[in-house]
Amino acid sequence: MAPRMIDIGINLTDSMFRGVYRGTRYHADDLAQVLRRSRNAGVDRIIVTTGNLKMCRQALSLVRDDDNMYVTIGCHPRNAAEFDKFYGGPDAYVKAQKDFLLDPANKKKIVAIGECGLDYDRLFFCPKETQLKHFHRHFELAEKTGLPMFLHDRNTGGDFAKIITENRSRFKDGVVHSFTGTPEELKTYIDLGLYISLNGCSLKTEENLKAAAQVPLDRLMIETDGPWCEIRPTHASFKHLKMTMEQQDMYKPRAVHKERFEFGNMVKGRNESCTIGQVLLVLSELYGIDPNELAEICYQNSLRVFFPDELAESEDNK
């Protein structure tokens, strides 16, 4: 039996999960099978991350009738220009975000503010100045709602840490997802009281592995960030990925190219929630901890941040 896990970040609104890749349909919508595989792998909750208003609407519609799926509400740094382009300007964009957050129908489904932050690796999507101009607007949303922050940081030369430090009193909890930073950056975020989430992209190089091994267990979460960030044979983490046949069936089912799609198979190059077990097993090797124990640690950390009322209730019933 698979240990229970929470995939705290996956981009299920991406059209790849509907069989469409860069505007071209290659196969039928197989999202239902993606979710079935996740449950078989022990993933009992999924948090769908959003990166703009359109994704927020799509994600809320997707999770509405599923008791095990939740969403974040925010604007990814690569989409920050949408604040200025929106009809009515940035203030109207923030109001549209607030409308999602204040709608009573959404209250139980929205568990974090984000994805938000800074990304200097892909400035062709959005200039640095625009990202810096609008990142702070998410702190207002976190302050108003009391929700944790789902944070994005890529190669920001200290700018991200500076802004978080200046605004740390405005939000209770936050997680730096898909962490790929240095041990020094890790220490800064831990000292700020943040959590760290790891996925396949967090484990590509030997340097990544050294940093990942230093994440305190009481601050650790795991995710897939699908349809990206899978663990590949070329990654430094791959040599640490040791699976039984049962684990292989759960965490790495047979995959085929999208051009040869068959129901029941994963799609090569499209990451999904069931593979979170691979991240767990690699980290289990790095930490020298039984995977079942590590899974439960990550699970409890995720409850503490995203589902605090449930955690408090369970502790009261002990």
From TrEMBL:
<dbReference type="Pfam" id="PF01026">
    <property type="entry name" value="TatD_DNase"/>
</dbReference>
<protein>
    <submittedName>
        <fullName>TatD DNase</fullName>
    </submittedName>
</protein>
<dbReference type="GO" id="GO:0046872">
    <property type="term" value="F:metal ion binding"/>
</dbReference>
<dbReference type="InterPro" id="IPR050891">
    <property type="entry name" value="TatD-type_Hydrolase"/>
</dbReference>
<feature type="binding site">
    <location>
        <position position="115"/>
    </location>
    <ligand>
        <name>a divalent metal cation 1</name>
    </ligand>
</feature>
<dbReference type="InterPro" id="IPR032466">
    <property type="entry name" value="Metal_Hydrolase"/>
</dbReference>
<dbReference type="InterPro" id="IPR001130">
    <property type="entry name" value="TatD-like"/>
</dbReference>
<feature type="binding site">
    <location>
        <position position="177"/>
    </location>
    <ligand>
        <name>a divalent metal cation 2</name>
    </ligand>
</feature>
<keyword id="KW-0479">Metal-binding</keyword>
<comment type="similarity">
    <text>Belongs to the metallo-dependent hydrolases superfamily. TatD-type hydrolase family.</text>
</comment>
<keyword id="KW-0378">Hydrolase</keyword>
<dbReference type="GO" id="GO:0008296">
    <property type="term" value="F:3'-5'-DNA exonuclease activity"/>
</dbReference>
<dbReference type="GO" id="GO:0005829">
    <property type="term" value="C:cytosol"/>
</dbReference>
<keyword id="KW-0540">Nuclease</keyword>
<dbReference type="InterPro" id="IPR018228">
    <property type="entry name" value="DNase_TatD-rel_CS"/>
</dbReference>
<feature type="binding site">
    <location>
        <position position="152"/>
    </location>
    <ligand>
        <name>a divalent metal cation 2</name>
    </ligand>
</feature>
<feature type="binding site">
    <location>
        <position position="225"/>
    </location>
    <ligand>
        <name>a divalent metal cation 1</name>
    </ligand>
</feature>
